[in-house]
Design brief:
The chain is mostly beta strands. It is 2% helix and 49% strand. It contains 1 helix and 16 strands. The strands form 4 sheets. Strands 1, 6, 8, 11, 13, 14 and 16 form a 7-stranded mixed beta sheet that branches. A hairpin with a 2-residue loop joins strand 9 and strand 10. It starts with a strand and ends with a strand.
Length: 164
């Protein structure tokens, strides 16, 4: 197997793959009688010309490290946002596109409270919580066309690092 080290999730490192969804240093404005800070427009959601936004709940089984990465997937018709419903970090795996196939994957660990939005057509690993519960709100494309492509690696990768 080939090894991948986990790195912290930063917007600079993740920029080509999507958005990090987290609080800004200060809210864009206060609402609700000044008792709620609105951190506005945190992700570039894309549902294609024939899709619409949908919100789903995913209840994923936590994974342990080292994690064996056998395949990645992408969604050619729309973006996909993962919003954890706990403060637990989770593993995010992405890979650059190299002529229609994924290149060498990168692994990131979110900070507590961070969510992510994968841009459409970005190769990524499956939802990988590291702690229970693995409950996420997911905002993605709902439509009639096929919006899933999988790629299975001939030789799997081993993702290892500090999961705390």
């Amino acid at each position: 197997m080939r090894d991948i080290s986990i790195q912290p999730l930063t917007q600079v490192a993740f920029d080509a793959f999507g958005d990090i969804i987290s609080l800004k240093d200060a809210p864009d404005r206060l609402i609700n009688q000044g008792l709620c800070g609105r951190h506005h427009d945190l992700a570039a959601l894309d549902f294609g010309p024939d899709g619409r936004a949908g919100i789903s709940l995913f209840d994923a089984t936590p994974r342990s490290l080292p994690y064996h990465l056998e395949f990645v997937e992408r969604h050619p018709e729309g973006s996909q946002a993962f919003l954890p419903m706990t403060q637990n970090p989770f593993l995010v795996i992405v890979a650059p596109d190299e002529d229609g196939a994924p290149g060498r994957p990168l692994a990131f660990r979110t900070a507590p409270g961070q969510g992510i939005n994968f841009y459409h057509n970005v190769w990524h690993g499956v939802l990988t919580p590291l702690f229970a519960p693995g409950l996420f709100a997911v905002v993605d494309r709902i439509g009639n066309s096929v919006n899933l492509e999988e790629y299975w690696f001939e030789t799997p990768f081993t993702v290892s690092g500090d999961a705390t």
